Every structure is written in C-alpha cells, then in structure tokens.
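Service request form, structural biology core

Requester: graduate student, group of Dr. S.
Request type: structure prediction, single chain
Budget code: on file
Notes: please return the result as structure tokens.

Sequence provided:
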Amino acid sequence: MTNYTNSQITLLINEYIHSERDRAILIDRFVNGKTFCELEATHHLSERQIKRIVAKADKFFISHLLS
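Core staff response, request fulfilled:
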C-alpha cells in the first residue's frame, strides 16, 4: 500500500469499514505505522484479535484497490 497517500487510505477505511473500533485500529496501523504490540496496548485487544482485523482489511484492500 506504499503507492497510496495517507488521505487515500484514510478515505478508503472511513468509507468501507463500518466498525468505529476497527477503523481506529486500521488507521493506526496503515497511516500511523503502529506495530501490533502498540495496537494491542492502545486498543486493549489481544495480538490475535488485532492481526485478524488487519488481515481481513488487507484482503479487502487488495481486492478493492486492484479492481
């Protein structure tokens, strides 16, 4: 996703991710560059939960951005 600007990524997240919690996690990960450990501490979720949210979004972004 390095070919996209932060504003493009943020717009895509805000437009298609309906969960406020997931939007915050994805913006922290893809725009702010936080690590999984940092996300875990900030959002009070397990690393496994964070990785599941990010992996689901990765699949969405790949299919959406390549179409």
